[in-house]
Amino acid sequence: MLNHLSAEIRQYLVVTGNYWAFTLTDGALRMLVVLHFHGLGYSPLEIALLFLFYEIFGVITNLVGGWLGAHVGLNRTMTIGLALQVMALGMLLVPAAMLTVPWVMAAQALSGIAKDLNKMSAKSSIKLLVPADAQGTLYTWVAILTGSKNALKGAGFFLGGVLLTWLGFAGAVAAMATALALVWLASLVLLQTDLGKAANKPKFRDIFSKSRAINILSAARMLLFGARDVWFVVALPVFLSQTLGWNHSQTGGFLALWIIGYGAVQAIAPRITGSLQGAVPDGRSATLWAASLALLPMLIALGLGAGIDPATILIGGLLLFGVLFAVNSSLHSYLIVSYAGRDGVSLDVGFYYMANAMGRLIGTVLSGWVFQMAGQGTGGLAACLWISAGMLVATVVVSLWLPGARYSGSLSKSGNGRSWK
After folding, report:
1. How crowded is residue 297: how many other Cβ atoms within 10 Å of its Cβ?
2. Which of 8, 133, 253, 413 is most buried, most CB within 10 Å of its CB?
3. Residue 416 falls within a domain, yes or no?
4. Residue 269 is part of which domain span?
5. Domain count of the chain?
6. CATH code: domain of residue 150
């Protein structure tokens, strides 16, 4: 049946399947690490530090990976990412006595490089598989890729909690490493060898974007994802486990369902924002949707402070937050692919996701530090939520500078050939 599909559609399916497999193991690994090391008595700050190198190397990888993808092709950067993730999982299969904080941080650093090579490659590939004048199709394809990826990341959270309960930490990691190694072998055969190579090889200094629109969008993305992770990465799962008394499967299952729903909303974001009626999003859309999200963490924090049952306020607040954040994220993902140039697309996408990784890094560190310093429990989670609200307000302010009319993606020949008109 696949033989009847166009070459572009077949490559889109390969890229998406590759991205799905990687994301499933990445989500499971994150939940495994949080729950396993919390069970060993690690403090919230120590757990956050386990992810420090994951986020730091994500920043570096996105910045350098875009340049690398333009030189060697996106198929190679994608398969390199898969291979590095298998190696990172292998590092966690050492005897328990060797699973020290520095060792796990090193494994997470490798995983961070792998994840952002894979993500940058997948998102950049879509730009090259859709005609330049088909912006509606581009938005739909990006939304499907992004939404399905996050749905599977949620499934990975659930998988991580279940595998930890069934197989233990080492057994769960070994199973994921084996499955991902098989996906890596298949990708070596199926991916196009020239996908994403730039006709004019960029110089290393071109890793920094000269596009005003991309720089503004990147700043907004950094704040947006910092606002999510400042309470979602460490504070929330530890609060559910420690304060509400949920077990590993309950915590992993709840967060999994949240992210699955979040991914589903991302996938249908074009319907929500009106693209089926020809209304392709622009900078004003990004500003309005960010503004709709900004008040929600404040309301959740006030509800916790007012003594409302924390399980009720968190479940209700998270459902609404997930819907609004999903639309914001999907809209942003479309805008960066639309703004990026076709030749050397990975440079623009890599720079943008560097800012995304920087936001996650800031949010992750703050999540552990603020939650611990504010006394953990309800007070710690509320403190993280107030910081989230402040970052979302900043997102709105930055987004006001995005192009109001739909950005055409036209490029000039100045500088590295990537400037905003």
Report:
1. 25
2. 253
3. no
4. 2-399
5. 1
6. 1.20.1250.20
Instruction: Count each helix (H run) and each strand (E run) in the chain, helices first.
Output: 15, 0
Backbone torsions φ then ψ of 403, nearest 5 degrees: -55, 130
- 117-176 pLDDT, tens digit per residue, is 887 777 777 777 677 667 778 888 788 877 887 788 778 877 887 888 888 888 989 999
Do 350 and 113 contact (CB within 8 A), yes or no?
Answer: no
pLDDT score of 287: 95
How does DSSP assign 329-340, residue by residue?
Answer: HHHHHHHHHHHS
* C-alpha span between 219 and 228 (Å, rounded): 15
CB 351 within 8 A of CB 207: yes
3-state class (DSSP) for residue 32: helix
The whole-angstrom separation of Cα 365 and Cα 160 is 22
What's the maximum distance between 2 C-alpha atoms anywhere in the chain? 61
State the amino acid at position 49 in one-letter form: L
Which pLDDT band holds residue 421 (cuts at 50, 70, 90)? very low
Backbone angles phi, psi at 210, to 5 degrees: -100, 10
Task: Please give the helix or strand (H or E) that residue 413 lies within, else none.
Answer: none
Of 383, 389, 349, 350, nearest to 367 (Cα)?
Answer: 383
- Is 407 a domain residue? no
